[in-house]
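Okay, is this right?
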Amino acid sequence: MTLSSGKAFRLGRIINPDTNRSVSVAFDHGLDVGPMPGITDARGTMAKLVEGGADAVLISPGIARLCQDQLSPKTAPSFIMRMDWTNMWRPLDPMAYEEGRTCLIARVEDAVRLGADAVLSFMFMGYDDPDVEIAEMQKTAELTRACEQYGIPHIIEPMCRGLKSKGKEMDGEYIAFVCRMAVEMGADALKADYSGSAETYRQVVEACPVPILIAGGPKADSPYASYEMVEGAIEAGAAGVLLGRNIIQAPDPAAALRAIRGIVHENMDATSAVQRHLN
């Protein structure tokens, strides 16, 4: 894949050019689900992510402003700006929707002005209403074209989340289907669901000639499950991670980050990484 010089420079701050991999952290949950453990003290959490050596953080425009002084290029992770909002995952039942929608909350020039190295947006597929799905693709296409104009990478987060894909969200075939569509739209990298095993995830990697950073989903039940997930994704050929709850809600987020860096950047197995950094 050939990128413009601006895109290549910025993506090189997110994906380590020495390993061609990335350990990035999703810290944008408050935008969609409100307050939750791990994000209430935004500046405190950001300090832990800096300490742990995150390659990049995914944050909303508001948190970017709040933590601006912590995002110094000399000491801080790269900054990916969340560009859209969804009502898909509201935790308050009376306000929840069975099938959510998305909308843009910022423009590419806003991300450039705030100092972001990339932007990221959802691309939900499988809606029961085809017109809603068409609008989602139009939103994605317009944002991608604007990113080309400004020379900033667009990381697309393609997901099967509509009623037509219910129960298949983590199926490797379905993940590969939506990820390939995102590549064809012009994604420079992907944040994608993980199918649960290296064997089933290889079809996703093989379908996508751009870097894939796996999403973490809900906080893992087992303390070791998230590290085993990272090991499996790297084995399958993923370029790294863009995890959220499994880092920011860990007992020691900085130590969790260091363990994941061991797996991603040093090719350690999950057991060895955990023993070195967490025990």
